[in-house]
Protein backbone atom coordinates (compact mmCIF):
# COMPACT_ATOMS: atom_id res chain seq x y z
CA UNK A 1 0.00 0.00 0.00
CA UNK A 2 1.17 3.48 -0.85
CA UNK A 3 1.15 6.19 1.81
CA UNK A 4 2.09 9.86 1.50
CA UNK A 5 2.87 10.79 5.11
CA UNK A 6 2.33 14.51 4.71
CA UNK A 7 3.45 16.21 7.92
CA UNK A 8 3.61 12.96 9.91
CA UNK A 9 7.15 11.87 10.80
CA UNK A 10 6.09 8.23 10.95
CA UNK A 11 3.06 6.27 9.85
CA UNK A 12 0.36 6.30 12.55
CA UNK A 13 -0.50 2.78 13.68
CA UNK A 14 -4.14 3.03 12.53
CA UNK A 15 -2.87 3.39 8.94
CA UNK A 16 -0.21 0.67 8.98
CA UNK A 17 -1.18 -2.40 6.89
CA UNK A 18 -0.75 -4.83 9.80
CA UNK A 19 -2.78 -2.76 12.29
CA UNK A 20 -5.11 -0.75 10.06
CA UNK A 21 -8.49 0.13 11.55
CA UNK A 22 -11.68 -1.25 10.00
CA UNK A 23 -12.73 2.31 9.20
CA UNK A 24 -9.59 2.93 7.13
CA UNK A 25 -9.94 -0.44 5.38
CA UNK A 26 -13.51 0.54 4.45
CA UNK A 27 -12.34 3.91 3.14
CA UNK A 28 -9.80 2.18 0.90
CA UNK A 29 -12.40 -0.31 -0.37
CA UNK A 30 -14.84 2.49 -1.11
CA UNK A 31 -12.14 4.54 -2.85
CA UNK A 32 -11.13 1.58 -5.02
CA UNK A 33 -14.78 0.89 -5.90
CA UNK A 34 -15.33 4.55 -6.87
CA UNK A 35 -12.25 4.50 -9.12
CA UNK A 36 -13.35 1.24 -10.72
CA UNK A 37 -16.75 2.81 -11.40
CA UNK A 38 -15.12 5.76 -13.18
CA UNK A 39 -12.91 3.48 -15.27
CA UNK A 40 -15.83 1.17 -16.15
CA UNK A 41 -18.03 4.14 -17.07
CA UNK A 42 -15.36 5.53 -19.38
CA UNK A 43 -14.62 2.06 -20.82
CA UNK A 44 -10.98 2.21 -19.73
CA UNK A 45 -9.20 -0.90 -18.52
CA UNK A 46 -6.74 0.47 -15.97
CA UNK A 47 -4.34 -1.10 -13.53
CA UNK A 48 -3.76 0.98 -10.41
CA UNK A 49 -2.98 0.93 -6.71
CA UNK A 50 -4.83 2.71 -3.95
CA UNK A 51 -3.33 4.14 -0.82
CA UNK A 52 -3.51 6.97 1.65
CA UNK A 53 -2.40 10.56 1.66
CA UNK A 54 -2.07 12.32 4.97
CA UNK A 55 -1.49 15.73 3.37
CA UNK A 56 -3.76 18.07 5.34
CA UNK A 57 -4.67 20.18 2.30
CA UNK A 58 -5.73 17.26 0.08
CA UNK A 59 -8.78 15.06 -0.18
CA UNK A 60 -7.02 12.81 -2.68
CA UNK A 61 -4.10 12.75 -5.07
CA UNK A 62 -2.88 10.99 -8.19
CA UNK A 63 0.68 9.83 -8.66
CA UNK A 64 2.38 8.04 -11.51
CA UNK A 65 5.54 6.38 -10.27
CA UNK A 66 7.43 4.96 -13.24
CA UNK A 67 4.25 3.86 -14.99
CA UNK A 68 2.45 2.62 -11.88
CA UNK A 69 -0.67 4.66 -11.22
CA UNK A 70 -1.48 5.38 -7.59
CA UNK A 71 -4.64 6.98 -6.28
CA UNK A 72 -4.38 8.17 -2.69
CA UNK A 73 -7.29 9.17 -0.45
CA UNK A 74 -7.13 11.17 2.78
CA UNK A 75 -8.83 9.31 5.66
CA UNK A 76 -8.69 12.49 7.77
CA UNK A 77 -10.48 14.93 5.46
CA UNK A 78 -13.92 16.37 6.21
CA UNK A 79 -15.50 14.36 3.38
CA UNK A 80 -15.97 11.53 5.87
CA UNK A 81 -18.16 13.76 8.10
CA UNK A 82 -20.88 14.00 5.43
CA UNK A 83 -24.01 11.86 5.22
CA UNK A 84 -23.96 8.61 3.25
CA UNK A 85 -25.31 9.96 -0.06
CA UNK A 86 -23.06 13.03 0.01
CA UNK A 87 -20.03 10.82 0.73
CA UNK A 88 -20.83 8.61 -2.25
CA UNK A 89 -21.29 11.39 -4.75
CA UNK A 90 -18.38 13.46 -3.45
CA UNK A 91 -16.13 10.42 -3.60
CA UNK A 92 -17.27 9.62 -7.14
CA UNK A 93 -16.59 13.20 -8.28
CA UNK A 94 -13.23 13.12 -6.47
CA UNK A 95 -12.37 9.89 -8.30
CA UNK A 96 -13.26 11.59 -11.60
CA UNK A 97 -11.01 14.50 -10.68
CA UNK A 98 -8.04 12.27 -9.87
CA UNK A 99 -8.55 10.09 -12.96
CA UNK A 100 -8.49 13.28 -15.03
CA UNK A 101 -4.93 13.80 -13.80
CA UNK A 102 -3.91 10.75 -15.85
CA UNK A 103 -4.01 12.95 -18.93
CA UNK A 104 -3.94 16.52 -17.61
CA UNK A 105 -1.53 17.75 -14.95
CA UNK A 106 -2.86 21.27 -14.60
CA UNK A 107 -6.35 22.52 -13.74
CA UNK A 108 -6.91 24.37 -16.98
CA UNK A 109 -9.83 24.41 -19.42
CA UNK A 110 -8.88 21.05 -20.96
CA UNK A 111 -8.76 19.52 -17.48
CA UNK A 112 -12.24 20.81 -16.66
CA UNK A 113 -13.67 19.49 -19.94
CA UNK A 114 -12.18 16.03 -19.39
CA UNK A 115 -13.35 15.96 -15.76
CA UNK A 116 -16.88 16.92 -16.84
CA UNK A 117 -16.79 14.13 -19.43
CA UNK A 118 -15.82 11.60 -16.74
CA UNK A 119 -18.46 12.87 -14.29
CA UNK A 120 -21.18 12.66 -16.95
CA UNK A 121 -20.09 9.15 -17.99
CA UNK A 122 -19.92 8.01 -14.36
CA UNK A 123 -23.33 9.41 -13.40
CA UNK A 124 -24.86 7.95 -16.56
CA UNK A 125 -23.22 4.62 -15.80
CA UNK A 126 -24.56 4.41 -12.25
CA UNK A 127 -27.99 5.50 -13.43
CA UNK A 128 -27.97 2.57 -15.79
CA UNK A 129 -26.76 0.28 -13.01
CA UNK A 130 -28.73 1.09 -9.89
CA UNK A 131 -26.74 -1.51 -7.98
CA UNK A 132 -23.49 0.43 -8.51
CA UNK A 133 -24.24 2.86 -5.67
CA UNK A 134 -25.55 0.05 -3.52
CA UNK A 135 -22.30 -1.85 -4.00
CA UNK A 136 -20.35 1.27 -3.10
CA UNK A 137 -22.52 2.10 -0.12
CA UNK A 138 -22.00 -1.27 1.56
CA UNK A 139 -18.55 0.00 2.49
CA UNK A 140 -19.91 3.08 4.21
CA UNK A 141 -19.98 2.23 7.84
CA UNK A 142 -17.57 4.92 8.88
Main traits of this protein?
142 residues, alpha/beta, four-stranded mixed beta sheet
What does this structure look like?
The chain is of the alpha/beta class and 142 residues long. The chain has a single domain, classed as Metalloproteases ("zincins"), catalytic domain (Zincin-like, 2-Layer Sandwich). The chain has helices at residues 22-41, 84-100, 109-128, 131-137; strands at 2-4, 48-53, 60-65, 68-73. The protein has a 4-stranded mixed sheet, with helices on one face. The mean pLDDT is 87.
Global shape: globular
Q: What proportion of the residues is helical, as a percent range?
A: 40-55%
Beta-strand content: 5-15%
User: What's the quaternary structure here?
Assistant: single chain
Give the number of helices.
Answer: 4
Number of domains: 1
CATH topology: Zincin-like
Q: What letter string, H or E per element, gives the SSE order?
A: EHEEEHHH
| Beta strand count | 4
**Rg from Cα:** 15 Å
Largest sheet strand order: 1-2-4-3
The rounded distance between the terminal residues' Cα atoms is: 20 Å
Structural class: alpha/beta
Which CATH class applies here?
A: Alpha Beta
- What would you say the CATH architecture is? 2-Layer Sandwich
User: How much is the average pLDDT?
Assistant: 87
The major β-sheet equals: 4 strands, mixed
CATH superfamily: Metalloproteases ("zincins"), catalytic domain
Amino acid sequence: MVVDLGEHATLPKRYAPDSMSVRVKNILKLWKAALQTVFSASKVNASFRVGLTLQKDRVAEYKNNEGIEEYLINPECKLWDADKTEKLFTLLVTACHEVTHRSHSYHGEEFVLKQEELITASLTYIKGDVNALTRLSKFINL
